[in-house]
Specification:
539 residues; 2 domains; five-stranded mixed beta sheet
Length: 539
């Protein structure tokens, strides 16, 4: 008990010290000539700067005359090559855009550079060290989750272990101990460990048993989609009642990218940016809203897994088909279970990562090939609707899933007996920790004046989404599993859907994978319908 209290106290002290070590950054919404602090060329501006070291930046320009400067939302003029001084930069994303005042033939009309301000350098920046920290966080969570101590048992009855695997890294990032922007861990986890986990989790998939789950999973998926499509314009309208300025400018263009992300994923989000032309600054702000609201809602769903039975009673749902699938998978695991030899593990991981490599190779070929076809289509309107199919990550997920399902019909299915799903689950939990690293609560606090209306839209939007899910689930008597997975197959995509599904049982992760692929397919179409309604409100 004393050791536990000591560890908690130490962690709190670390957070408090980190909080107080942050440099306070005051808002200064103007450009001003001033003595230099740090000088940097406009051409080299993109990157990360730290307020504790570089709160004031002097920007130099080369051969740029007769341009208007747009610094975030403010406009001033650059009359000559005079250097400009940015004073007391606030934590978060910033953009400097130069627009030609008198456009001459052959001149570039607009040039934009984006950069990010963080409070201070992270304590830990070496990826190996950060990875070690994330792994010890996972160790601490699961060690305490399996503890026989009464206070841990009471705690984990309320808070799922998976939720802590997400929020502790989020706290470490928010308080400057680690930094997601300076780490490649999420990229590695999402590009290498995620496809490997999809293959390992699908190895023992029982397609006939999944078919017996019925149509409710598909119905809940499209209910989630409908909640996103309707929720966007409704949230925009509600917030406009007390903040009419949200209907002005290009906010609806930025919100289109959120719609794309929440009905498909990153591929659809990028597609919507290209279709509706959201500015880099607006896109950066929307990414913050997207990450915060989506991950907050995922935490709510993970919290709900601890009350699965109670929620099923509320929905009057029959989850016998789900329990039957879980039981069948557990029985299969027991029937093939054996002590894993060195050769077993080498064979399993060798085949798995060989498939991951082939999936990457296929994605690198198919993505550009599809993009080339779409670019050559006469009907560019139709091409834009299918632009997400040219994204390499989409094909990486699809091919990995196909390989996993394909191997489930071979003798390699018996790799489940030496821990295929367990290793796949480990990879997923590492992914969860790296996803948590992307949340920066302190950035939201520092930029509350900018984000308060955008966050209000996002929170109302996700609540409408949740309302759709609960109403439809109540009507069709769908289990909470379908609610959670149907939601994340839309909002979170392939990275989150299997995580939420595995919170119920690792054997159910393939259901989340298959629904996430469906989300990629319909994401752009649903997002365009949502955007058109938001645009109609804003005009």
């Amino acid at each position: 008990m004393k050791k536990t209290i000591g560890l908690i106290g130490l962690f709190i002290c670390v957070l408090i010290f980190s909080l107080h070590s942050q440099t306070k950054v005051e808002t200064s919404n103007y450009l001003n000539n001033s003595p230099k602090n740090k000088t940097i060329s406009f051409n080299d501006l993109e990157g990360i700067f730290y307020a504790s070291e570089d709160s004031n930046l002097t920007i130099t320009f080369e051969e740029l005359y007769d341009y208007s400067i747009y610094f975030d939302a403010n406009d001033t003029e650059l009359l000559s090559n005079t250097d400009i001084f940015l004073k007391d930069l606030q934590r978060g994303d910033h953009t400097i855009t130069l627009k030609k005042r008198n456009i001459a033939a052959g001149s570039k009309e607009e040039i934009s550079k984006s950069f990010k301000i963080k409070a201070s350098r992270p304590w830990l920046s070496n990826d190996a060290t950060v990875f070690g920290l994330l792994m010890i966080v996972l160790f601490f969570v699961f060690k305490t989750a399996k503890s026989e101590r009464i206070y841990f048992k009471k705690f984990y009855k309320v808070v799922p272990a998976l939720l802590l695997c997400y929020f502790i890294p989020a706290g470490l990032n928010s308080f400057g101990i680690i930094s997601s922007e300076e780490s490649n861990l999420y990229f590695i986890a999402s590009r290498y460990l995620l496809p490997a986990s999809l293959i390992l989790l699908c190895l023992s998939i029982d397609i006939p048993a999944i078919k017996r789950l019925g149509s409710k999973a598909i119905i809940m998926f499209f209910a989630a989609t409908a909640g996103i499509v309707v929720g966007g314009p409704l949230a925009l309208y509600v917030v406009s009642l007390f903040a009419p300025e949200v209907l002005n400018g290009e906010i609806w263009r930025g919100l289109s990218t959120v719609a794309g992300s929440w009905i498909g994923g990153g591929a659809n989000q990028t597609a919507m940016k290209e279709i509706y032309g959201a500015s880099d600054q607006m896109f950066s702000a929307m990414i913050v809203v997207d990450v915060f609201v989506a991950n907050l809602f995922m935490s709510v769903l993970l919290f709900g897994t601890g009350y699965n039975k109670k929620l099923n009673r509320f929905f009057k749902a029959d989850d016998s088909a789900i329990e039957s699938l879980k039981t069948k998978m557990e029985e299969f695991q027991m029937s093939v279970s054996k002590i894993a030899s060195f050769n077993d593990l080498i064979y399993m991981l060798g085949i798995t990562f060989c498939c991951v490599g082939i999936a990457h190779l296929g994605a690198d070929f198919i993505g550009p090939w599809v993009t080339e076809i779409l670019n050559g289509m006469e009907n560019q309107t139709a091409a834009r609707l299918m632009v997400s199919f040219g994204n390499g990550f989409f094909w990486l997920v699809v091919l990995s899933t196909i390989f996993g399902v394909g191997l489930s019909f071979t003798k390699y299915r018996e790799f489940e007996g030496v821990g295929a799903s367990k290793i796949g689950s480990v990879f997923l939990y590492v992914l969860v920790a790296t996803i948590g690293m992307k949340m920066d609560i302190m950035e939201l606090i520092a930029n509350w004046g900018v984000f308060k209306f955008l966050l209000s839209i996002g929170l109302i939007w996700i609540m409408v989404h949740a309302l759709f899910l609960f109403v439809v689930a109540k009507i069709i008597k769908a289990p909470f599993f379908y609610v959670a997975v149907g939601s994340q197959a839309n909002v979170g995509g392939a990275a989150s859907a299997p995580i939420v599904a595995s919170a119920f049982s690792p054997s159910l992760a393939p259901v989340g994978v298959l629904l996430a692929v469906l989300g990629y397919a319909v994401g752009t179409f649903g997002a365009i319908v949502c955007t058109l309604m938001m645009q109609a409100l804003s005009v």
